[in-house]
Design goal:
Elements: H1 13-18, H2 24-32, E1 37-41, H3 49-54, E2 58-63, H4 66-69, E3 75-78, E4 90-95, H5 105-117, E5 119-128, H6 132-137, E6 143-146, E7 149-159, E8 162-171, E9 174-183, H7 187-193, E10 196-201, E11 208-213
Parallel strand pairs: 1-2, 1-4, 2-3, 4-5
Antiparallel strand pairs: 5-11, 6-7, 7-8, 8-9, 10-11
The chain binds S-adenosylmethionine.
Length: 217
């Protein structure tokens, strides 16, 4: 089966075109505030971008996949997040999709540094992550449905703070397999090292939180 275009981090564009926005835009909208300008890092096909635009936000959507960005309406930037330096500040920066749990410490640092340099003085960094307890709970065979897409985890392997697995997405007669490795992180350590400070939990299951820039001086 031809999976269609796939990003550098293994995401199939066709899967993200099928996935529904779910509750994410509502969480981001509530945290950012009405009319807030939003820099969205790793926007994919605009699954979350488009509802945020409809809610009245001015969104700049960033991704390093041209195939993903081809589907995004509004202002887009084709770039690696770590290299991003727009010379602009935003009311909110969105770092969703557990990108912060990358297994590479240098990538995580680059993601957070990019987020930090685009945050206005009162700006909020809005993050979706895998909390530590997720790493203990996750199991092979776990899954469910997101809209018309079936999702199932396989081959879960733990190695210290790292967890590797394969996720199978299926829709109709098509399926896509994506392997990933993610890292359990200590939030205070990670935020402090990026000159950020925890602000608030944004969801009851603590998979979303907000942070702010530490005051300098
Ligand atoms: C899991 S997808 C999620 C897309 C979107 N956030 C959503 O929830 O529908 C992750 C996206 O982030 C992009 N991405 C991952 N790491 C990136 C990086 N370092 N710089 C730019 N884009 C990145 C990928 O190309 C992909 O489109």
């Amino acid at each position: 089966m031809d999976p269609g275009p796939v990003t550098a981090d293994g995401c199939a564009v066709d899967v993200y075109l099928l996935l529904p926005p779910g509750g994410e835009p509502g969480i981001v909208h509530a945290a950012a505030g009405p009319g807030a300008s939003i820099l969205e890092l790793g926007c994919g096909t605009g699954r979350v971008t488009h509802p945020l635009l409809a809610l009245g936000h001015d969104v700049v959507a960033v991704d390093d996949s041209a195939a993903m960005l081809a589907h995004v309406r509004g202002e887009t930037v084709h770039a690696r997040i770590g290299d991003l330096d727009l010379g602009r500040e935003f009311d909110a920066v969105l770092l969703g999709s557990h990108l912060i749990n990358t297994a590479r410490d240098d990538d995580r640092h680059a993601l957070l540094a990019a987020a930090r340099r685009h945050l206005g003085p009162a700006g909020r960094l809005i993050v979706e992550w895998h909390p530590p307890e997720w790493f203990d709970a996750v199991r092979t065979g776990q899954g469910g449905r997101l809209g018309e897409v079936g999702v199932e985890l396989a081959d879960v392997v733990r190695d210290g703070d790292l967890l590797s697995a394969r996720v199978r997405y299926s829709a109709g007669s098509r399926h896509w397999d994506q392997e990933f490795t993610c890292c359990r992180i200590d939030l205070d350590v990670v935020l402090t090292s990026a000159d950020l400070i925890f602000d608030a939990w944004l969801s009851a299951d603590r998979t979303w939180f907000a942070a702010r820039a530490r005051r300098r001086g």
